[in-house]
Amino acid sequence: MTTDNHTTVIARTVARVVFPIIVVTAIALLLQGHNLPGGGFIAGTLTAAAVGLVYVIYGMDYLERELLGRAPSAPFTDEAGIDREYGTLVTTGLALAAGSGVVAILFGEAFLTQAVWFFHHVPIYGEFEVASALAFDLGVYAVVVGALLTILAVVGAE
Amino acid sequence: MQPTAGIVLAVVALPFLAAATVPLVYRAIGERTAYFAATVAAACFALIATQFGAEGTVVFEWIPAFDVSLSFYVDGLSLLIGFLASGVGVLVFTYSGGYMHTEPGKQRYYATLLAFMGAMLGVAFAADLIALFLFWELTSVASFLLIGHYQDESGQYAARKSMFVTVSGGLFMLIGFLLLHWVALDVAAVESAFRLAGEGSMLANADAMQTALQQQGLLVPVLVLVGIGAAAKSAQVPLHIWLPNAMEAPTPVSAFLHSATMVKAGVYLIGRVRPLLVTDEWVLLFALLGLVTMTVTAMLAVTASDIKELLAYSTASHLGLIVAGYGIASTADSHIGLLGAETGAFHILNHALFKATLFLVAGIIAHEAGTRAIDELGGLRKDLPLTAGITAVAALGMAGVPPFNGFYSKELLFHATYVLAEHDGGLWWLLPIVAVIGSVFTFLYSIRFLMLFFGDKPDELGHVHSPPWSMRGPPLLLAVLAGVVGLGGVTAAFGVHLGPVEEFVNRVIESSLPTSAEEPHFSYYLPTKLSPWLGMSALTVAVGGVAYPFYDSIRDALREVRDADPLRPNWYYDGATEWVDANDVGDLVHNGLLRTYALWFLGGASLLTLGGYAAAAVGVPAFTSFAVTPAIGIVLVVAIVGAAAVTDAPSHVAGVLTLSILGFMVAIFYILADAPDLALTQLVIETLVLLIFLLVLDKLPAFYGDSERWTTIRDAGASLLVGGTVAVTVLLSTASSPGIPSYLEHSLKSFFIERAPPPAEHGSFLLDSGGGHNIVNVILVDFRAFDTLGEISVVAMAALSIVTLIAMRERGETQ
Question: Does A147 contact B798 at a Cβ distance shorter than 8 Å?
Fold first, then answer.
């Protein structure tokens, strides 16, 4: 396992600076995806890459010990741990994506029909667009992040 | 009367649903799951009964554009098999409640048995060839699981053997079906080329189909291929070898699958396709096959030393009788064909009644006396008086003694063979002779089975307990039914016919007659006049009666013949399987190494794909619209150099880093080709892959080590093959444009370009447009959102499987 003994100060400092930038970029990609390059899948993999960076540079237990302030869990035992939370993320994402399709049925449309609202005269933005597809994309994002981090955690724990 | 669509679907679906709920039900009510299953079977029986008298097709559209649908066909024959599968099912489940009391694996047992019942009902009602084939193979899989129920060595051998014989027989049948389909495509009257029965189907246009088959020269191949499938399933010589071994299964399974239902699938198929394929070749194949099977397996039954073995051979023998019945027909005289169909249809019913009874009796004997060896049993009458009575009715029916039920259908067979021989003369006289010889042996072993209850009781047997009522009731009911059918013939001789049975059998017969044939008027009665075939029956009983005192010496003589190696099909089967084992054929295909599986799987898929392209004679399209600019050229060259360098990397780190050169070059290529979304994704994925590699790197050995020369050559060949296949596929699939779908005015591409962005003039709410300028994303989350939903499910599934594979690996080992 890669632990903090192996990494240099440079790597640790750079990772500390870069991590928030990557996450913010990922969120930006998620939100702008409808009109500019981006989307749930890209944002999800980017977020997973950011957390993966933490795993490589700081070791597998750092996330739980330092960021979440609790004792690291042994992965994939019966006790609740970060892998359980990744799993919950996956199920939430799937439920969100499928649920956003069910909402369309409630309005008498076909499953997964998407709609767009435009709000005019919004301060700063002028015309502001909200697509129902965003909910679906959020679901995609959550599934991708959850699944990739599960894989990272499993492979890393090996 | 038209069948009701919902009910027919429910009949087939209900057992599968019930099978899926068995684990829950078992948790709630434990052993009483038997009665839950019996209730399900009874519900199916009742549902089928509501369709009594119906005839026609019900269709559930699935993909109308490709003419794909799930269709069921209801007529006399399918109702008969349906009644057998569900009716005997009720009794067998009830019986299992008593029999399986002390046995292991009850959940698996009931779930599989229910699923089997569903599959069998599917076979009975399927109207198209593909559905029929699927249900057919499902019954084989269920049989495999049930035969191997006890998971001991002989059970596994038997399960494998039956799987091997019946499933490979099914594959022959599949080829026959595909040939039928291929011929049907050219027959104008056949609307749906996979539809076997119902309106606009092959059977509805049997004459046109038969002419087309003969013109193409495919009649005999189809006949033989379908015949092999049916013969494997219905245990016809020489493919009967799996049936005696199948007796390793719990006895209720033997009664259900291996006597009353699954083995009937083969004769069902023969009866079903009979109007389509009946010709002189048909008669030659099936009449001979049936009569040879009937005689040979009847002799084998005499040699049996175990009561279930005796019943197994006897089942094969009676299936032979049914096949022979369906096989007998004549192009010149339709009356002969009618007699043949009567034999087959009536004997399916009679055999199910008496044979299921006898199997259940065998279960009682094995359970209560603790042995199944014929020599150790005798005089059971005193301890099991009711069972003795049941056995008398069933065994005398099996022997063909008047006035018991088996007599009438056997009489019909004698009649049919005699008339055919009289009509065609010459060697055809062998048929009635063989039929009589087979029947004499049938008489002998039937009486031997009955004598288990009479004579002296061996001292070592001890006291035999009476079984619980759940085990006595089902055979009693079956024996009463068999007795009633038998008595119906006696009363009919005095003019009082057993109306419903005759009417029902009449409708079963209709299913197996050509459309042009005369209307059948089936009735059966105890003969009141002398006739040659009555003489044949009398001869059978007389010879059998005279020979019975010498049973033991006949048995020993037959055993000598049976044990001569070249005469034993098992000798060939075992020899072949042992040869395969001894020559490491298994190691070549599955040796537990992932790379071997990958090689076979990818190589096979590539060869099949390339073969498909070659068969369809597609040409690889030329590049026309793609110009390589200097920038793209440089990127591609670097990518290729990177790819080549990977093969020469001295260590894992170097290899992974070199590989990422290739990935990043592809990303740059996407940027240059105006695909920013793809480029972004490629970049991020590439980074992520690099990260995962870094995480696992210190787990891997530092160096690859030297590989053998031929391994390198093989791997290089395999990668070239796979790469070439992918390249050709990409070229072909990108070159062909999908055309304009019927529901659009323009092509799909222009639809996406038009509809994805919001229109220039728009209100505050949009429904019929994607409303986004990034068309790729709009396609992903809006137009093709259903695909994306599927993809993220796959991603979730992949994570789940990695968790199971890696994290739970050790947990699995400790359990």
Answer: yes
To the nearest 10°, the Cα dihedral for B485, B113, B258, B118?
70
Residues 6+ apart with CB under 8 A from B68: B62
- Measure A65 CA to nearest chain B CA, in Å: 19
d(CA B446, CA B438): 12
Complex-level ipTM: 0.89
Domain coordinates in residue numbering, chain A: 9-157
Neighbouring-strand partners of residue B373: B306
Distance between CA atoms of B802 and B434, rounded to whole angstroms?
Answer: 63
| Best CA proximity match to B792, nearest among A149, A144, A101, A135 | A144
The H-or-E segment that residue B63 falls in is strand B56-63
Which residue does chain A place closest to B687, by CA atoms? Answer: A49
How many structural domains compose chain B? 4
Domain membership flag for residue B263: no
In B416-515 the beta strands, taken as DSSP E runs, fall at: none
Q: How far is CA B686 from CA A27, B259, B648, B665, B791, in A?
A: 19, 60, 21, 11, 19
Does the global pTM surpass 0.95? no
pLDDT tens sequence across B198-244: 777 888 888 888 888 888 888 899 999 999 999 999 888 888 888 88
C-alpha separations of A7 from A11, B274, B308 in Å = 6, 78, 73
Count other Cβ atoms within 10 Å, centred on residue B468.
15
Specify whether the CB–CB gap between B632 and B672 falls below 8 A.
Answer: yes
Residues in chain A within 8 Å Cβ distance of B687: 49
Name the E strands within B220-340. Answer: none
Q: Same domain for B123 and B32?
A: yes
B783 DSSP assignment: I
